[in-house]
Amino acid sequence: MHITEPLPGEKRARLAFGLEWRAYPIKEAKDGRSRYAEDFTATHCVEMKVGSEMLAGFCAPEPSQLRRVKLYSGAARVAMLERVRARPAVLVLMQDEQMVHLVYVVRGAVHNDEVVSLATAAKRREAIAQQCGKQGLALLVLASGGALEAGDEPFSPAELLQLKGVGRIRRVPAGVPNVVMVLLISAVVGLAGKAVYGAFNPPPIVNAGPSWTQSYDLAVKEAFVHAPLAPSLAPQLLARFDSLETNRDGFQFDHATCPASGYCRLTYRRMGGTFEDFARRASASMLPLTFDRAGNTLEARGPAVPTVTSVLAAAHASWPDEQGLIKALQTPPQRMSELPDTLKSFGYVVLMEPSRALLSTPPPANEAHGPLIREGRWEIDGYRWQGPLLERLPPNMTLETLEVKLDTAAPDELGKVGIHFVAKGKFYVVQ
After folding, report:
1. Strand ranges (E), 51-98
2. CB burial class (10 A; 0-12, 13-18, 19+) of residue 241?
3. pTM beyond cutoff 0.90
């Protein structure tokens, strides 16, 4: 981090460059701020809202640097300039004697806040320009300094003096994270409520409880609260990885895990790159990043899970029974493929557990009931080119998770490298 000389017109104010920037949801600001402050061993930070996320720069200035001084983030002031906020991507280079303050802003969010030498500035400018070209962003370069190549538009560091009070760097507040506070408050409220309720209410009369039919109806309702249709969700989710860049900035894609809703989580394995380079060039859609303390892997946010139709219990009349499901899916005879032997040799395997009743207790003999729904678990392993087979899955199968992995030991027919998937979920049949 580099601190400038006192700013003209601002008493005891100075700009600081070279902060570590990260983004986290506004609703989880306290937890995100505390987590990153601990990761960077930071004592101070500056925060600014960008859309639905909070963008923060972290630093740990020496006590002597803070004596009778107010620090402001130079990168934050650059990002707040009107002509910077109006452009998709802006690179600002400001010469300060033999150093250059480099600030790269994408859609109002600070991506790079660096202090580099004059010899390095040209290389960093070219690298960021190439990165923008790959991402389809129109880059505007603003440069100030006689030793620097001219920018696309004139720029003067004096523009930052117009934003007085903007970007103040403050001490990271010490406090209990939101998660701990919520649990503590819930426990206190629960104990107090229990005590008050017990004081003013006598013990309730124990009733017979719900009937078996009522318990079964509740179990069915809970089972289908979120039951995305596997033949709709699995192929769409698998297709989200067709355009995934497997190698970037010295890291190689290893695997991704996708739930039934929300976002997938990508895992990259380090192949000679550095965490700093990956974080510097990561797109906003990949944030937040999580780095492995052992230095081998990192995690990033992946594609969003699409919303599809759900399996409906009311449509149970059209479901195949358990034996029909086994005949359609299991290998052999692999009924979903016209070439079962070829398909089997490529590792397309279907695993099915026996179905079980939704309730562990059988229905009473004196209670009349209709057809009863049972559930079981399934798993399908295969390669990306076998993805169309997932579209033929019966309408009584739901998807819970999908794992996509870069397989470097694939069959020779795939060139020994392929995208392997493991889909898991539940199936429902009628007894």
Report:
1. 53-59, 70-73, 89-96
2. buried
3. no
